[in-house]
Design a protein that fits this description.
Layout (H helix, E strand, L loop, with lengths): L1 H99 L2 H17 L1
Length: about 120
């Protein structure tokens, strides 16, 4: 009976040792997996930051390009407006001149000027 009791104690000790070894392996695997998860989180945070920075940079570039195009379009519009104003002013001046100058008066003035220059 002592022999059986000793065998039971030995088996119990072996089971305890195995249990401790299994627990240690479990703890090591858990620590490794936590390390892997932590590393993956760091990498994903880094990638997310890079993506956000790239998006901000592209948005800034698009905004700058849009602002430049707006300025170019505004300058073209100003130039067209200037040209239209000049054209309109020329047309108005022509109409005013046509209205102000009576062909008979012009002919009379021309004759008078010719006569003055002929006398000199």
């Amino acid at each position: 009976m002592d022999k059986e009791l000793q065998q039971a104690k030995d088996k119990h000790q072996i089971a305890e040792d195995l249990k401790e070894k299994t627990q240690e392996e479990y703890n090591e695997l858990r620590a490794k997996s936590q390390g892997i998860l932590d590393q993956a989180k760091l990498e994903s945070d880094r990638e997310r930051s890079q993506i956000v920075e790239k998006a901000k940079s592209e948005a800034a570039h698009i905004l700058t390009s849009a602002e430049q195009k707006i300025e170019i379009d505004k300058e073209h519009a100003r130039q067209e407006l200037r040209e239209e104003i000049v054209e309109l002013a020329s047309m108005m001046a022509g109409k005013i001149i046509d209205k102000e100058i009576d062909p008979e008066k012009y002919q009379e003035l021309s004759i008078q000027e010719f006569e003055k220059s002929d006398k000199s």
